[in-house]
Amino acid sequence: MSAELTSEGRRAAYDLALVLADTKFITAHRYSEWGMLGAPDIEEDIALSSVIQDELGHARSAYRAVTKIGADVEGGADDVDDLLYERDADEWRSATVLDEKLANWADIVGSLAFLDFATVLVFENVRDGSFDALQGMAGKVLQEESQHVQHGQAWLGVYADPDQDEFEQRDMQAAIDRFVPGVASWLGTGGSELVEAGVFTRTNDEMREEFLSEVQTLVEANGYEMPDVPDDWDDWDASTRRNAPPDPDSFTETVDEATGREHRYLAG
């Protein structure tokens, strides 16, 4: 049975759904920039293409949840086209680690191993809650995202293998240094309003602590160094899970390319 949300709880659920939708949509776009001949071999090209399809499916489901919840939220969106085509770049709520292009294959691995792991933690939390609008999509997302995480974690071992010379361990360390703090920030702090609403069963802090504990074990077991993770939340916005909006000067092109909205406008 779905939880009966207060206006504050429904707003928090709406914000969460929009963050998840935007993050999955932009993840698919960042991967697509590397798809077809960008991966190390044809098998990885095929695997990445499958991951992109998964991410787009997750984004589609999350956007539907946004509009369903948004119909009862003041100022909320109730149309997916409005979300994709009518928002300015600085209104998007994708994870900060996706603001820039993924620089190399190690960044792809970092996204799979760390951002998708955080996604698993969030959807496990949603699955264990009692809010139908998000809970219903959790099963499929968890199955597919767990496979992404396993794939990314396997590649951590490839980069760490001293018997290969194709993939530089320093590239993977740089990706770890980028993604681990960024994803920990995305998981955020607080979250009691989501727990009180029945959307979550655990707070953001509890998810972040589990993330950091498991990631540290994984990172150090493969011979990498665990980066420092800032614990300053003064500028963190719970509604966007970011410290600041995306920079429109650089992110507008990303939104235009991801949505194809320039072509839509040209078509009238």
UniProtKB/TrEMBL annotation:
Compositional bias (Basic and acidic residues): 258-268
Entry-linked SUPFAM superfamilies = Ferritin-like (SSF47240)
Renumbered to this chain, the Acidic residues biased-composition regions fall at: 228-237
Q: Which Pfam families match?
A: PaaA_PaaC
Q: Which residues does the annotated region (Disordered) include?
A: 224-268
What superkingdom does the record give?
Answer: Archaea
Under the heading PANTHER family, the entry gives:
1,2-PHENYLACETYL-COA EPOXIDASE, SUBUNIT C (PTHR30458:SF0), PHENYLACETIC ACID DEGRADATION PROTEIN PAA (PTHR30458)
Put simply, this protein is called Phenylacetic acid catabolic protein
Q: Which organism is it from?
A: Haloarchaeobius litoreus
- Give the organism's phylogenetic lineage: Archaea, Methanobacteriati, Methanobacteriota, Stenosarchaea group, Halobacteria
